[in-house]
């Protein structure tokens, strides 16, 4: 008799008990996994359900309408102003943050002396750990006045003929301050993902190019970038997704204004910050539903960004035959 | 010998365990002796309610929790029954009464909205009237040195600075009071923007709460805004003396508020609301941007007995905390109606 | 090659000085970017710490706020510190068991298609903006019942769950299969193998996940805005009512006109930053330690 048979015969009901224990754990763990899927579905459903009253009244025209008139009897709501605010703040922030982040990643993988790589990496990632409300506090009390008193007048004097750089804001709360705040927040995300991508470029490819006589920059441009192109795109999309979802820091520094103003120094509002400001005080059912409608638009965009980034990563991985080491991004 | 890694793990696990212990202790602890009365709404009345917390606790053992989230938020919160009472400076509309399902409205405080400004080197209590103010807020007057403002303030050196208007970004009863005044002073404003807890502001930046507007104006040179007068005092902000219909310039002090309150002594029999904005010519002492503020309670509540006690106290003893904050105690005629309405709360 | 006058090598040699200049420029740019990145962190942390140090005293932790105080009054944020402890503690209690169970299911039981499917769902959950989670929890728990610490903690738990699950999954995958097979081969039932043999190996990773999730969510304001923000000034430990929290307190104080309020906001922000930085460091330390242990053991 083998050891196994002896064990089984010593415990005649072992088979049934084992099956019960196995079944219980599998069912409980499976239920937890199912519950997480149900949770996400519930979130999506609740947001759609909450915005239905506004969808029924406004339809898809809501998405582009530039209006937010809460006066009773003349109520008219639309997301256009906030879509503009979200787009301009997040896009400009990404435009500034992406080159900086890629530069940081390149520095940390190619150029930095070994000794400082670890500490500098840790410092950059610590920037991601600073809570948004603290950055917002710093934005209102420190950054805003500096931008209002020194940076904006200088930019207006130098580049005032461009409509983007209109008269400086009077209060320090403006689209521009929000852009700086968002840049600070998405910099670490794009940087750390890019860093991991660059670390994954095969040594042979890099050293081969250098051996052929290319300068380091030419090697980066010719080997690292093409190899990591998809991943960098995904990193930028994830950074963008993070920026559009940021409600707290933006609401503290953006100056809560409705309407489309092309000057970066004017006030504005984004989808997320409008919800943070107005949701608790929604007076009529239509206003609350319209705010949730804003949340629905925000949710759709966030999901698109997230899924889009994942899809790019998968496509790139399949093409190159390797995958990113992490199970998920961001 | 325990390694540093083990040390860190022990520390982290202890921190996690401490959380768990704190939570368990909290959850298992006996129910607080105090009854919690939770309310939310108007930032206008928040300074007065804050003064009520301690005396109410010692008188009845009630723990009063009040959050200033704006009048609109207060109405929404009490409609959704997420709080025991709501506070709003803007009276409920018929639709809001219906949505609230059996709520009553009680005027419980009386004060004024100060129009604040931030001008370095310029004296306090500059003169202003409703028509000019409406033009400023509509964006038609953009500089402090504009002749319209200069005309009201002969002999004062007004700087050539841009007027930076700060309004409320949340749904606010103070906005309602302010725009009510603008609508009654300017037909142009009335048709274009009207009155409400929030309007389609043509110019200016938004801040949350009266404290947000006070902060915005005090940090912005050339700023102009509107807050409950208690905020203007607390933050040493300058405010205008506003011209009333009689042509006199009145300040948002107790005399001006009392003068305005004289223009409507009996609340509306249906809704208990009172309108004392821009009173007629014969009220010479009136400050034209004064307002009552209301507490909104469901007629039927599990905490009916506590609410009745609290509200009776608020409209009687509570009023004595007002004058220091420039809240004028409510007149007898209003008090009588208030007490009759409070008695209607039942469980 | 010699038949054509100028070779590629010649071109390369001629261009070399220019290529070297471009290279130096780009190297300089990346170094500058790194300096900017580090400088941003230093500036912000220094700003916060410098201003927070002034108002950092025991009053902050032991006294309650006195709104609209006239004249200097001893006040602090005791209710916010207590509330944050309860909210984050409850959220951790909700997240850790569920996260472990989901990770166990995905690694030990699920087919690869199910594993990638649920992983995708968790990534989606991770990407949902916190303000949308707040709307959801408000509609689910607050409407009709009032705000509560439970609702706030649940909102925080929704944000913690993907981190917790992923952390546990990573470390479960590190446990060598030989361990599982040896245990099963000795007749230990599957469930006992997982609970008594595999999971204890992963305590380090689970702790890491919990600690990093706590660091992530300790500073979150949006999920608490509509679920646990209508609060009083007394210290309360019962989650049946709304509880004040440090991030929400900072948010409210940041928009006040009173410089004394700003001072307390800076002080609270300093404490929050220190807590989050220490927790993140601890989490990462545990992570590297436990990963080294698992892969070098056996």
Report on this model:
The complex is a heterotrimer of chains A (330), B (347) and C (298). With 330 residues, chain A is mainly α. Helix content of chain A is 74%, strand content 1%. In chain A, strands 1-2 form a two-stranded antiparallel ribbon. In chain A, α3 (80-111) runs antiparallel to α8. Mean pLDDT of chain A is 87; it is low at 1-13 and 322-330. Chain B has 347 residues and is α/β, with parallel strands linked by helices. In chain B, the strands form two sheets. In chain B, strands 1, 2, 3, 4, 6, 7, 8, 9 and 12 form a nine-stranded mixed β-sheet that branches. Chain B has a three-stranded mixed β-sheet with strand order 5-10-11. Residues 26-32 of chain B have low confidence and may be disordered. Chain C has 298 residues and is mostly helical. Chain C is 77% helix and 0% strand. The chains are: A mainly alpha (330), B alpha/beta (347), C mainly alpha (298). Chains B and C meet through α1, β1, α2, β2 and α9 of B and α3, α9 and α12 of C.
Describe how the helices and strands are arranged.
The complex is a heterotrimer of chains A (330), B (347) and C (298).
Chain A: H1 3-10, H2 14-58, E1 68-69, E2 76-77, H3 80-111, H4 114-129, H5 132-159, H6 175-199, H7 203-211, H8 216-245, H9 248-253, H10 271-278, H11 285-320
Antiparallel strand pairs in A: 1-2
Helix pairs in contact in A: 2-11, 3-6, 3-8, 4-6, 5-6, 6-8, 7-8, 8-11, 10-11
Chain B: H1 4-28, E1 35-41, H2 46-60, E2 62-68, H3 71-79, E3 85-88, H4 94-100, E4 103-117, E5 127-128, H5 130-137, H6 147-152, E6 164-168, H7 173-185, H8 187-192, E7 205-207, H9 209-218, E8 223-228, H10 229-234, E9 238-239, E10 241-243, E11 249-250, H11 254-261, E12 290-298, H12 304-315, H13 332-342
Parallel strand pairs in B: 1-2, 1-3, 5-10, 6-7, 6-8
Antiparallel strand pairs in B: 3-12, 4-8, 4-9, 4-12, 10-11
Helix pairs in contact in B: 5-7, 12-13
Chain C: H1 8-55, H2 58-62, H3 78-109, H4 112-127, H5 130-142, H6 149-174, H7 177-185, H8 190-201, H9 203-218, H10 222-225, H11 246-254, H12 259-296
Helix pairs in contact in C: 1-12, 3-6, 3-9, 3-11, 4-6, 5-6, 6-9, 7-8, 9-12, 11-12
